[in-house]
Design brief:
With 482 residues, the protein is an alpha/beta fold. Helix content is 42%, strand content 15%. Bound molecules: pyridoxal-5'-phosphate (PLP).
Length: 482
């Protein structure tokens, strides 16, 4: 009898341990995790903690009999992978890759210009190592970050000097504040623009400390309007490129050369906010001519400002070029320090400008590549893209390749419509809006456009049809083929 009790105990202990041994080890869980690409951004320690937590729960469930020994191992592995995946998903950065199927080449909300490979490399290098951002390698003394791109900009625009700030809005603000604070700036009513809701010329002017003096009417402004407006308080005549709209019909504007003549006669400087600011002649690429910075400098503008991430095809930046004496004044303004751009931008900008000077930009600059694609080239991508989507969507989804027009975007050449080919997607019960939502929730998200009640994917902005090999599974709307 004496040996009975310990025996029973041993048996009970063995019975309890057996099921626990049925559970996979932490190592086994980690091995599975290591094989899954989607879990790469979670640390080993984090995954370990997760696996331990699950193991504890499953132990309790086993001992209480809530789950069966035979299936416990499989269940636990499945559960752990599921948890890890949902954590990895929750851990995903907010800024994500999306597929731009809008056909809008310079889409402000999708980040405007895609950078050339050399510009991407330059930014990565600047991020990774110390650089001579403000260090003169010849003298060993302090350098100026503007010098990194000034000679390229001089060569490309014919201007005497250049300075770089964060974006074109900052460029306009800095120019007006430096040259006209407390005084008047004469602008035509037809050029008091608003861009994308956040850049309104009168507001920027007010914040610069300069006073706006509107002349002319919305559709017509004459030489005499400017002449009559100039007085002792006048600091500048400002011309603004009406980027995102055109006034057509009964119109008259005073051209830049005329304005320069008026300014010279009265001793007043003329400056221009050119917006997109082409550095090259777009008509060489089958596009309509957009005013070039070089032409505006040659026509006598004292200063021209433009964006780095519009037709230039570079990073977000505000570029100011013009007469040295004026640029020096801008550089001396404390606002310049507040508006200066960072090393990654400057690195990418320098590489982009070099491409403009010496590279085969038609191939190297994504912006130009996309603008220059013919409907025929786009058709091939559209056909392949449709096949890829066909494999992923139930048969009720109808996919047709149709003619369409794409826009350049960012207020560049607003009246220009580029012939393109698009995939029109329809469904017997889903609206265009719900189709757009379904594509937005794909992984990665696909951004198309809705026109005349239908949902379209414009392939102008997709170079590789494999971009449409997206995952609709897990989509809460769940329209994918099972
Ligand atoms: C786009 C644009 C701006 C604003 O430029 P950002 O680089 O976006 O700040 C200002 N003026 C004109 C005429 C523009 O076209």
């Amino acid at each position: 009898m004496a040996s009975e009790k310990p025996k029973a105990n041993q048996q009970r202990e063995a019975e309890c341990k057996r099921p626990l041994r049925a559970l996979p080890s932490i190592d086994a869980c980690l091995k599975i995790a290591a094989r899954d690409d989607r879990l790469r951004n979670l640390s080993r320690d984090y995954l370990k903690k997760l696996a331990r937590g699950a193991q504890d729960e499953f132990r309790t469930a086993l001992v209480s009999g809530a789950i069966k020994v035979e299936t416990a191992s499989k269940q636990m592995l499945g559960e752990i992978v599921q948890r890890m995946l949902s954590l990895a998903q929750a851990d995903e950065p907010k800024l994500r890759t999306v597929v731009n199927a809008t056909g809008v080449v310079l889409h402000t909300n999708l980040g405007r210009a895609l950078l050339a490979e050399t510009a991407i490399e330059a930014a990565a290098t600047a991020a990774r190592s110390a650089i001579n951002l403000e260090y003169d390698l010849d003298s060993g003394g302090r350098g100026d970050r503007d010098n990194l791109v000034e000679s390229e900009l001089r060569e490309l625009t014919g201007a005497e000097a250049a300075t770089i700030v964060n974006n074109n809005a900052a460029a306009v603000l800095l120019t007006l504040n430096t040259l006209a604070a407390g005084r008047e700036v004469v602008v035509s009513r037809g050029e008091l623009i608003e861009i994308g809701g956040s850049f309104r010329l009168p507001d920027v002017m007010a914040h610069s400390g300069a006073r706006l003096k509107e002349v002319g009417t919305t559709n017509r402004t004459h030489r005499r309007d400017y002449e009559q407006a100039i007085g002792p308080e006048t600091a500048l005549l400002l011309k603004v490129h009406p980027s995102n709209y055109r006034i057509i019909g009964f119109t008259h504007e005073v051209s830049l050369p005329e304005l320069v003549a008026i300014g010279r006669a009265r001793g007043v400087e003329v400056i221009e906010d050119l917006g997109a600011g082409a550095l090259i002649d777009l008509s060489l690429y089958g596009l309509p001519h957009e005013p070039m910075v070089r032409e505006r400098i040659a026509a006598g503008a004292g200063i021209v400002t433009f964006s780095g991430d519009k037709l230039l095809g570079g990073p977000q930046a505000g570029i100011v070029v013009g007469r040295r004496e004026l640029i020096e004044q801008l550089r001396a303004n404390p606002l310049k320090r507040a508006l200066r751009c960072d090393k990654l931008t400057l690195a990418a900008l320098e590489a982009t400008l070099r491409l403009h000077l010496r590279g085969a930009i038609a191939d190297a600059l994504p912006t130009l590549r996309m603008l220059g694609r013919s409907a025929g080239e786009i058709e091939m991508v559209a056909a392949r893209g449709r096949d890829i989507l066909r494999e992923r969507l139930a048969t009720e989804f109808q996919l047709d390749i149709v003619d369409a027009y794409s826009e350049i975007g960012s207020g560049s050449l607003p009246t220009v419509q580029l012939k393109t080919r698009a995939i029109r997607i329809t469904h017997p019960t889903m609206t265009a809006g719900s189709l757009a939502a379904m594509f937005r929730h794909a992984r990665p998200p696909v951004i198309g456009r809705i026109r005349e009640g239908a949902f379209f994917l414009d392939l102008r902005t997709i170079e590789d049809p494999a971009a449409l090999a997206v995952d609709f599974v897990g989509n809460t709307i769940g329209f994918a083929r099972p």
